Amino acid sequence: MVSAPRLQRSFFARPAVTLARELLGTRLVCIEKGRRLSGLIIETEAYSGEDDLGCHARVGRTARTEVMYGPPGHAYVYFTYGMHWCLNFVVESEGFPAAVLIRAIDPVEGWDVIASRRDGVARDHWTDGPAKLTKALNIDKTLNGADLCCPTADLFVESGIQIPDASIITGPRVGLFNVPEPWKSIPWRFRVAPGWLIATKELMLG
DNA sequence: AGCACGATTAACT
DNA sequence: GTTAATCGTGCTC
Predict the structure, then answer these.
(1) N or C: lower Cβ tally within 10 Å for chain A?
(2) pTM (two decimals)
């Protein structure tokens, strides 16, 4: 598998909603003991600013949200429901808290490692949730704040395949039960339509 | 020091 | 469709 160019900091220095869309089809890569584990990003959500009452930064600057206020192109990894880690990319500009949650990937490299971490789970469900993909790639708090754009990073994003607008489904963000409108329903969730990848990725990835 | 809640998941019925 | 698991975070006392 040939590596594609890594996404640079300028890529991440754009609005969260734009990036949630643009990140679909890019490749999330972890280097683990010199080995590449990767998958195409197929589902994301945008969280932007203290005014966004669905965003963790609604409470302002705290130890937890500090990373979101830092420069773009870093990882924001948070813990939830007492047992799960979720991965976000810090976006927009330094001083403004915004991030894109990575909700699902389609595994490309490191199938054996991913399978072992998702033992007993059907392949279609290895990485189809935000806490499933972190488990599969062994992402936890040690990667919170990690720079995705540093040349020696072992967590980064590569350019991938283009997804046509017609094959992208948008909708409300998931799990915001007690969040008031309009934030509860604003369509900042983006995902690749189910059949599109099946028909296309093998042609493009070989 | 204590409390309610959560950007979830898997195993149930 | 329902629910338990499980603990960091932010807020209140």
Answers:
(1) C
(2) 0.96
CA distance A50 to A67: 14
Strand B atom within 7 Å of A173 CB: yes
Q: How far apart are CA A143 and CA A12, in angstroms?
A: 18
Measure A12 CA to B11 C1' (Å): 38
User: Average pLDDT, stretch A14-37?
Assistant: 98
- Our measurement of CA A192 to C1' C2, in angstroms, reads 29
Tell me how far apart the alpha carbons of residues A200 and A206 are, in angstroms, rounded to a whole number: 10
- Tokens 């699902």, residue located: A104
Using an 8 Å Cβ cutoff, are A156 and A5 in contact? Answer: no
**Vertex A43 angle, CA A47 and A51, to 5°:** 10
Q: What mean pLDDT do residues A74-95 have?
A: 98
Q: How far apart are CA A38 and CA A11, in angstroms?
A: 19
